[in-house]
Design a protein that fits this description.
260 residues; alpha/beta; 8 helices; 11 strands; binds S-adenosylmethionine
Length: 260
């Protein structure tokens, strides 16, 4: 074995040892474990922790932060603003309690855009309970199948938590939207893997998809990617499995191909 290969092996062994050591103190780390599926990750949630996002109380976590417009939201805002003249309705999948509706209200004329949040029942319950008088064009559905046809499907921060492939999600819509905007898609170079994110009171399966998965799915669904970006500032690694490499956060704007 050459010196370079030996050095790589040694580096990997050291990273693995550091990761497994961190696993001994799970409360101090954000990402724990590397599992083959959502179901397998759920089986490893620690006793005393809520399992996943669909639990009352989990909607409080990071709620204030999600209602802000951090730097990584600007590509989405740019595309929504640019498409605004042709948008009547947005489906905000994984839209939580309507956090991005609230965050973007300063920048978009939301009075004339019907904004339908699709999320898990616990978030929809919280969202309906917290609706404000000014949220006139905001509504919620628990089943994507119940969402009316829309011009844009927004999936901001959804893909890491979504327990199904993108194609299955899109297949549940009554009509394919002309535009799909995805942000904060967690990706890696190797095979897709699911880890557990530490939400303190809950542990939540977090999908890190192979970097080709979303572009290939969009293409197969009939979409052209018209823009894409990398969010350097939220790159990370799985604390317990640093040897699996960097988790790169990406965004995409895609347009349905014209047919005929
Ligand atoms: C990190 S939050 C994203 C909130 C917001 N869109 C943003 O960008 O800040 C992820 C959201 O995805 C939702 N989610 C997870 N699994 C889902 C599923 N199978 N269907 C719909 N929403 C889901 C969670 O309930 C949560 O509200």
């Amino acid at each position: 074995m050459g010196t370079a290969a030996l050095r790589r092996r040694l580096g990997r062994a050291v990273r693995m040892a550091i990761g497994r050591y961190r696993a001994l103190k799970p409360d101090t780390i954000r990402f724990r474990g590397a599992f083959r599926s959502h179901a397998e990750a759920l089986q490893h949630v620690r006793p005393g922790k809520l399992k996943g996002y669909d639990n009352d109380g989990v909607s409080e976590i990071s709620k204030a932060l999600m209602q802000e417009v951090p730097l990584w939201d600007y590509p989405v805002l740019y595309w929504l603003k640019r498409l605004a003249p042709e948008i009547e309705r947005v489906i905000d999948a994984g839209g939580h309690i309507g956090v991005k509706y609230r965050a973007f209200a300063r920048y978009l004329e939301l009075d004339r855009i019907d904004w339908v949040v699709y999320d898990l029942p616990a978030q929809v319950r919280a969202g309906r309970a917290e609706a404000r008088p000014q949220d006139k064009t905001l509504s919620f559905v628990e089943r994507l199948e119940d969402a009316p046809p829309a011009d844009v499907l927004l999936g901001s921060g959804l893909l890491p938590y979504l327990d199904q492939p993108l194609a299955d999600l899109i297949g549940r819509l009554s009509r394919r939207p002309r535009h799909i905007l995805l942000n904060k898609v967690a990706t890696r170079d190797g095979p897709s893997v699911v880890t557990l994110e530490n939400f303190r009171l809950a542990e939540v399966p977090y999908h890190i998809r192979n970097a080709r998965e979303v572009p290939d799915a969009l293409d197969a669904l009939g979409y052209d990617i018209v823009d894409s970006w990398i969010i350097e500032s939220i790159a990370h690694r799985i604390d317990t499995h640093p040897e699996l490499g960097a988790v790169v956060s990406r965004g995409y704007a895609a347009r349905l191909r014209e047919t005929g």
